[in-house]
Queue: 2 jobs
Job 1
Amino acid sequence: MDIRPNDILIMKKKHPCGENKMFVLRSGMDFKLRCVGCGHEFMVARSKAEKNIKSVIRDDDT
C-alpha cells in the first residue's frame, strides 16, 4: 500500500476522542500519525496500521 506523508487515512476504528481520520507525518517501517480531531501524535507499526485503513485521502496539488 502506498502511503506518503501528508496523506489522511480514514481508519476502521475510531480514536478515543471519536475521530477516525489520521494525518500521516512519517512513513516507513512504521507510521507516525496525528489524530485530526485532538492532535495526539503516535507511532504505529506499518503492518498493524495497514490492516485498519479503510481509505486514503491524498492531496495531489503538485
Note: Residues 8-57 form a domain with the SH3 type barrels. fold (CATH 2.30.30).
Job 2
Amino acid sequence: MANQLTFKQAKENNFKRLEQYVAIVDRVHGANHPEFHDVRKVFETIIKKSKEARVEKPELNEEFSQLRQITDNYKVPGDVCESYEAVYNMLEEVDKAYSA
C-alpha cells in the first residue's frame, strides 16, 4: 500500500477543485438530489476545520462519517453529470487518505 496518499497530499490534490465543483454541483443537482445540500454543508465544515487547524490532520472523523452516510459510501446516482461523480470520487479519495 505504498501508493496510498497522505491526507495532506489528498487535500493538495483535491480541495481547490472541490471548492469549485461542490457549489456548482449543489446548484445544478440540488433540486433533484437534496442530499447534496448536506454534502456541501459537511464539506464546508471540513474546509473550515482544515484551514483553521494548526495541525496537518485536524479532527474530521465525524465529518467523514457523515459524508459516508449521506452519500451511501460515495455511491454516484445514475442521473448525474461527470462533475457530480468527480466530487464523490475526490471526497472518497480524501476520506480514504484521512482514514489511512
Note: The two ends are 10 Å apart (CA to CA).
